[in-house]
Specification:
It is built from five helices and eight strands. Strands 2-1-4-3 form a four-stranded mixed beta sheet. The chain has a four-stranded mixed beta sheet with strand order 5-6-8-7, with helices on one face. By secondary structure, the protein is an alpha/beta fold. Pfam families: IF3_C (PF00707), IF3_N (PF05198). Belongs to the IF-3 family. Monomer. GO terms for molecular function: ribosome binding; translation initiation factor activity.
Amino acid sequence: MFCFISLRRCINIVKDLRVNDRIRSRKVRLIDQEGEQIGIKSLDDALDRAAEYGMDLVEVAPQANPPVCRIMDYGKYKYEQAKKEKEAKKNQNVMNVKEVQMGVKIEDHDFNVKLKQARRFLNNKDKVKVRIRFRGREMMHKELGYDLMDRLIEQTKDIGKVESKPKMEGRNMMMFLTPESDK
């Protein structure tokens, strides 16, 4: 099972290149292992030459007329492609969305705890979704929510930027902050 999965992964990386006996064309444009163009040869001649060097004949440009084939070590090529893809994946930055919830009547200490949480998320390169819940008659005083959001923006402006301004969605006021380095 393991070999099947890793083989499938390798095939996806190399995008189903035809190798040796799987090449269908009668004539091919041949390139040797140093990258020198040999010319148009019959498939049998090209396969013989690849076998002479102990390497594989790989169809690198099937859409060309005649198809371009290269003499190379196919196993080594697949390995290098997998290595490149793994390296690209490692350098990729995955951004998560973390949420900070508050109420309108939040006290200073509780606000500071939520602020510290938001700052920690921004330092970890995560987006922060800030949500303020309005209950009952608090809906009459939306300006308190906007003031709270402005206070949070002011205290995180050194490490984060506002991606979307505070807006009401039902009984909740929402806003998104992104890390400074991402913009």
